[in-house]
User: Which sequence fits this backbone?
């Protein structure tokens, strides 16, 4: 009697089909997630797409009518949307650079064998634990033109500080400063764990070969942190491009729309002007941009990793 | 046989069963929470409002005071943050037809709600058994309670932008008349001179006004001065019409006040309030809802309407009103609705408590009571209820609206002195055009 099977099943097929038949209870385990995923992500996504093709208005007299791509056409011709998009990109650039460089620098400094490391770690990471509302209120008071600590400090050295959050030329930078202070801790933690994971023997060997501290940094530390940097950049770009909370609370998008981000415009259009259809269209344009950006980043870093 | 003597151990199956049971319970609970407020028990009226701080405390007091008088029903209040979040939630609940039984809106927002079908009509005749009628409201307020001749709101109060002053400072500055009032200035120069006289007494500021970063406050004083010139803003044939001269005139007047040496040009709400309450300024321009906080601070306090500075002889100030509305319900229960009428009547009759928050009750019998006459400084600005000017009656305007926020953005640079009033006019025109373009009703 031959022990060779008469039919051959692809190994992958066997792995994917049989467990479900054998263990139908497994479906029960994933069912809550599937239901929630469908209810709160898949359905709203589809419904939002449908809304973007209608003139649905919460306060409108007439029922929503299908208007095709009219909302998209209006959005592309809307200067406020482009301004908001530009602000979002500018905010992303202004925050991503310091939120990659500073945490790296902090991690390297904290990793030096200096005393009181716990204090430095705490001081840098602590703001990240605060809620956006708390951070915003603290910063609004700090940046108050007449009562704030920052202008009071500047006044001591003879400088008249600006009305940070009320002047269109400084408001974005003020929000960026607040954001960097608030969120630098998370990236710092990522870098710190990566720096501490580099085996000490590598540095010892380099030191034996006569490599200076700078050479060790350039030739060992930074190259070994490349993957972490890729991760930090990717996460930071996605986090910054979705900015809403702190701007909403610190400036409300003003003055003169100088800090209005694209998500704020979606919020204003949908929830203040009640134009749900138009707000959905802007959301989908933004969604498309984020997808393209994410894919570009993914390909870029995948190529670097391969090389 | 195994005999258990200790507490039952928690195995994987038990945990799973407990988790599923708990999850189901939570799910049912969550779905229950999603149910329409109107579908709660017949005796419980769902009431949404936006009263926080001192206002919220007083509304709570009133509901407790009247609880025994409202037989067969009780009120369950839900307090939401005012501004866009509140109005959006209310609009969404109404659009779904499963709204609360009763809600509060600002009268200035009525034009954006009523024509769109988000509100149900009140029947003034149904109030008569409870002692409420058209005659029990001030004429301009009753007029604004209607849209296209239909009654969509029942006003609880009027609240205006006024001039608070420190009578001790004003007296030391030689400004007080024999009856303890400050004579109404006839133009901006005289108004600023009065502030300067008070600045000489305080050694700091004469007048403070917390406008910086606060679009609502910018709008309130602007609208006061704009309407004092007899100008209006309205939509006619799809075009938003307003007076450019009056716009510039109002803005220039604010600039003249805040940029004088008796004021601080970069003053936000916190700065203005603390400066006045600490005796650092003789006058404080703000809304009447600041009365509880000002009284609590212990600063000597009096108030007056903001005088007409344009020589037009028109009494005009910015004002608004908290008002009761019936958010749209697809299938209202008439018995519950009758209780809503009774409840609103009772709240109006208890609005003397509401007056202690600084507001002037809209239900006029209350303002005729001796107790109201004893409220200070309320009685010194109560007259504003007769001539206050609501925001333009267009769908995108009103308290907490995005248009108001955008107005602040348009004029702030001019107020700060980094742009001209004509720049502000251009920005205002452009941003309003956007709102007109997007308006649907």
Assistant:
């Amino acid at each position: 009697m031959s022990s060779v099977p008469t039919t051959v099943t692809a190994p992958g097929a066997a792995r994917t089909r049989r467990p479900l038949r054998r263990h139908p209870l497994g479906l029960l385990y994933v069912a809550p997630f599937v239901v929630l995923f469908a209810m709160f992500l898949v359905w709203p996504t589809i419904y939002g797409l449908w809304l973007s093709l209608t003139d649905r208005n919460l306060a409108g007299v007439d029922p929503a009518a299908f208007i095709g791509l009219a909302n998209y056409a209006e959005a592309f011709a809307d200067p406020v949307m482009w301004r908001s998009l530009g602000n979002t990109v500018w905010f992303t650039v202004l925050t991503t650079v310091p939120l990659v460089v500073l945490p790296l620098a902090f991690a390297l400094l904290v990793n030096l064998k200096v005393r009181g490391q716990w204090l430095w770690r705490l001081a840098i990471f602590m703001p990240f634990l605060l809620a956006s509302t708390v951070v915003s209120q603290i910063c609004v008071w700090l940046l108050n033109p007449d009562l704030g600590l920052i202008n009071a400090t500047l006044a001591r050295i003879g400088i008249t500080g600006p009305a940070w959050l009320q002047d269109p030329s400084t408001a974005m930078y003020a929000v960026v400063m607040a954001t960097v202070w608030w969120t630098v801790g998370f990236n710092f933690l990522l870098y710190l764990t990566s720096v501490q994971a580099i085996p000490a023997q590598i540095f010892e060997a380099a030191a034996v070969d006569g490599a200076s501290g700078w050479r060790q940094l350039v030739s060992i530390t930074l190259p070994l942190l490349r993957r972490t940097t890729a991760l930090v950049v990717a996460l930071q770009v996605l986090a910054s491009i979705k900015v809403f909370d702190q701007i909403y609370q610190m400036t409300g998008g003003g003055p003169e729309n100088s800090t209005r981000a694209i998500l704020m415009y979606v919020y204003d259009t949908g929830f203040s002007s009640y134009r749900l259809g138009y707000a959905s269209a802007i959301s989908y344009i933004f969604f498309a941009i984020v997808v393209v950006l994410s894919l570009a980043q993914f390909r870029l870093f995948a190529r670097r990793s391969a090389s | 046989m195994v005999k258990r003597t200790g507490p039952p151990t928690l195995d994987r199956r038990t945990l799973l069963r407990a988790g599923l049971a708990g999850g189901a319970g939570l799910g049912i609970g969550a779905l229950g929470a999603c149910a329409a407020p109107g579908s709660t028990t017949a005796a419980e009226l769902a009431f949404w409002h936006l009263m926080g701080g001192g206002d919220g405390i007083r509304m709570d007091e009133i509901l407790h005071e009247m609880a025994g008088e409202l037989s067969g029903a009780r009120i369950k209040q839900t307090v939401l943050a005012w501004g866009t979040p509140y109005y959006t939630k209310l609009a969404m609940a109404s659009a779904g037809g499963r709204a609360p039984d009763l809600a509060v809106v600002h009268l200035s927002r009525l034009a954006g709600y009523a024509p769109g079908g988000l509100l149900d009509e009140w029947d003034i005749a149904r109030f008569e058994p409870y002692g409420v009628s058209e005659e029990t409201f001030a004429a301009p307020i009753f007029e604004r309670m209607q849209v296209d001749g239909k009654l969509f709101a029942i006003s609880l109060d009027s609240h205006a932008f006024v001039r608070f002053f420190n009578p001790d400072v004003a007296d030391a500055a030689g400004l007080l008349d024999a009856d303890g009032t400050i004579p109404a200035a006839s133009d901006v120069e005289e108004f600023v001179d009065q502030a300067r006289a008070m600045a000489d007494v305080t050694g700091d500021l004469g007048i403070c006004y917390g406008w910086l970063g606060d679009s609502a406050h910018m709008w309130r004083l602007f609208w006061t001065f704009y309407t004092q010139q007899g100008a209006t803003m309205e939509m006619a044939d799809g075009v938003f019409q307003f007076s450019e001269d009056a716009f510039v005139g109002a803005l220039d007047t604010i600039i003249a006040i805040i940029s004088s040496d008796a004021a601080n040009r970069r003053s936000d709400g916190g700065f203005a309030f603390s400066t006045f309450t600490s005796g650092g300024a003789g006058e404080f321009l703000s809304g009447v809802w600041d009365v509880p906080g000002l009284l609590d601070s212990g600063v000597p306090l009096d108030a007056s309407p903001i005088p007409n500075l344009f020589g037009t002889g028109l009494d005009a100030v910015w004002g608004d009103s908290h008002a009761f509305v019936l958010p749209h319900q697809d299938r209202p229960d008439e018995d519950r609705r009758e209780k809503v009428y009774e409840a609103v009547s009772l709240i109006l009759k208890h609005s003397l408590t509401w007056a202690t928050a600084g507001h002037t009750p809209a239900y006029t019998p209350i303002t005729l009571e001796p107790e109201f006459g004893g409220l200070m400084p309320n009685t010194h600005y109560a007259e504003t209820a007769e001539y206050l000017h609501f925001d333009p009656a267009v769908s995108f305007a009103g308290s907490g609206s995005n248009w108001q926020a955008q107005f602040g953005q348009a004029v702030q640079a001019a107020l700060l002195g980094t742009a001209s009033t004509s720049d502000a006019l251009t920005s205002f025109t452009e941003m309003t055009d956007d709102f007109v373009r997007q308006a649907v009703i």
